[in-house]
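queue> pop job 88
queue> type: inverse folding (structure -> sequence)
queue> payload:
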């Protein structure tokens, strides 16, 4: 059984928001660690929560990674929240404006199962 898909919007309940923040912060830091080990890369992760408390993770020395970042002059990939939403929506819809194939397959399988249920009953 899969997990329920959640709506990515601000969590209104303060307690639930704090619990989610703590769990996802740990998950994000774990993913950063895994990426640094598996791909032999340097990672610096800086998080400020809603009350401006600082959390950080660095695969090596944070100061060295930040110095390297500030001295970096080459063009590089940079993403914002709106970029991530746009890419996610683009992956969901193809050029014709139709929902991606995996979503269509799910819809057709669900429709077919309802059809079979009606025939058999």
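queue> result:
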């Amino acid at each position: 059984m899969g997990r329920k898909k959640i709506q990515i919007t601000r969590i209104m309940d303060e307690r639930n928001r704090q619990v989610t923040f703590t769990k996802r912060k740990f998950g994000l830091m774990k993913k950063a660690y895994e990426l640094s080990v598996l791909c032999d890369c340097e990672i610096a992760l800086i998080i400020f929560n809603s009350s401006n408390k600082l959390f950080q993770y660095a695969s090596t020395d944070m100061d060295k990674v930040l110095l390297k970042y500030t001295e970096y002059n080459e063009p590089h990939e940079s993403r914002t929240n709106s970029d991530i939403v746009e890419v996610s929506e683009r992956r969901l819809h193809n050029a014709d404006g139709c929902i991606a194939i995996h979503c269509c397959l799910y819809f057709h399988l669900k429709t077919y199962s309802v059809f079979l249920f009606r025939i058999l009953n």
